[in-house]
Amino acid sequence: MPPRRLLASRPFLVLGLLLAGWFLVPTVIKRALGISFFELQAPVHLAASHVRDLQDFWSLRTRSSHDLIAAGRDLARLNASYEVTLQQTETLRREVARLEALLRMPTLPGYRSEPARVARRDFNAWWQRLTVRKGRNYGIVPGSPVIFGGGVVGKVTEVHAYTAVVDLISSPTLRLAATLEGDTRPLSFQGANNPAFGPARGIVDYVPTDASASEFSPRRIVTSGLGGVFPAGLLIGEIVRLETSTDGLFKTGEVRLDNRLSELTEVTVLVPERRD
Fold first, then answer.
1. What pLDDT, on the 0 to 100 scale, is given for residue 107?
2. Which residues contact 195 (CB under 8 A, 6 or more apart)?
3. pTM above 0.85?
4. Is residue 72 predicted with pLDDT exceeding 70?
5. What's the CATH number for 175-262?
6. What is the pairing mode between strands 186-191 and 201-207?
7. Per residue in 139-170, is it b (16+ CB within 10 Å) or e — as a string?
8. 21: exposed, middle or buried (Cβ count in 10 Å: 0-12, 13-18, 19+)
9. Higher pLDDT, 250 or 193
10. pLDDT (tens digit per residue) in 133-185
């Protein structure tokens, strides 16, 4: 091989050797290196997130007093509405506990709500993820459901010292059991291959043949509670298209997800409560 061609191909040879060496490294070592690299990056992401919060704070300081008064008035109305909702929820909780004791039924799994600030977003064709500013330091565990005011956000897949990674429901790596709102027959929901800057969509399978939905008459789907991960009744999205599957036994369709998923700044992690 001529010397000039050898010099030109040297970078590719080095890259090939590095890739071959990486494939020979044991999986345990690869995982340890990946976790260490993520932990080294975490302070940078957290610092950038705190800087954004500081920028938002000073931008709000420039608002006029009239805007602040209007915001305070709206917040007071929301607080009053939430107070009523909390009272109703507590009444329902006591009624559920009474019926469980009366019927000798096992108690449903409980969750502790842990609000968390979003530090980083990672959207591409393979997965859609969020990194939140809480991890093992707040007792978050892998598999914890993540929600917001519009329903399901996703599920915690990785937990580190001060951060946690959340797979969004729009990610093709996430699958969960669902039902049509007002129905008890189980369905299967999975995230789709969504574009980085496009509207979030999902896929639903095993829909009963008597169900119908369209863009002009969508059907809401909620979590079924099966699988023991997500509580029942949490909103997932709306079915906007249904068609008969290839075997003719069920229908498959497209689910429109909440547009706010890509703009979330704060979420709530449902940490399962331990029982002795």
1. 73
2. 125
3. no
4. yes
5. 2.40.10.350
6. antiparallel
7. ebeeebbbbbeebbbbbbbbbbebbbbbbbbb
8. exposed
9. 250
10. 888 989 999 999 999 988 999 999 989 888 899 999 988 888 899 999 888 88
Helix (H) or strand (E) run with residue 158 in it: strand 151-159
Widest distance between CA atoms in the chain: 88
Q: Residue 80: in which H helix or E strand, if any?
A: helix 65-103
Measured CA to CA, the distance from residue 227 to residue 31 in angstroms comes to 27
Structure tokens at 197: 């800057």
Token pair for residue 224? 């079924």
User: 174: buried, middle or exposed (CB in 10 Å: 19+, 13-18, 0-12)?
Assistant: buried
Q: Is residue 96 a contact partner of residue 109, using CB atoms and an 8 Å limit?
A: no
Domain extent listing, the chain: 17-61, 175-262
